Amino acid sequence: MDQQTQGIKVKRRRSRAEIEELAAEYKGSGLGTAAFCQLKGLSRSTFARYRKRQEQTVRKATGGKHWVAVEVSGSAAIAGGERASSLAVVLASGRRIEIGRGFDADTLQRLLAVVERS
Questions:
Q1: What is the DSSP string of 76-109?
Q2: 86-117 burial by CB neighbour count: b if 16+ within 10 A, else e?
Q3: What is the pLDDT, as a whole number, of residue 21?
Q4: Beta carbons of 103 and 97 less than 8 angstroms apart
Q5: Which end of the chain is more exposed for a tag (fewer CB within 10 A), N or C?
Q6: How far does CA 50 lie from the centroid of its chain?
Q7: Taking the domains of the chain in order of start, what are their residue ranges?
Q8: Tens digit of pLDDT for each residue in 63-79?
């Protein structure tokens, strides 16, 4: 009797390339961890381990630093003919955080802490 007919679940190892592909798919999916893992048939603990390894690999390769894309766009006109000064951060998931003139730095730090945890 083989393993399939006995109903034994065989664990398989994923290659680094497969793990990198999963991490990229997750970043672009816009899904939460639980939904993504369910879609891919992964346990959350396994996926968390994959992500941690991926982050460590990136940190080692870049010395803890990495480049991000920055796009400079024209400033938008607002009522009264003044120009608004703002920053926008677009996450890999497509979510966008916009910060206007006179933003509260403490609030931004708290927001970023929440974003980095997810």
A1: PB-GGG-B--EEEEE-TTS-EEEEETT--HHHHH
A2: eeeeeeeeeeeeebeeeeeeeeeeeeeeeeee
A3: 87
A4: no
A5: N
A6: 13
A7: 3-62, 79-117
A8: 766 666 666 666 555 55
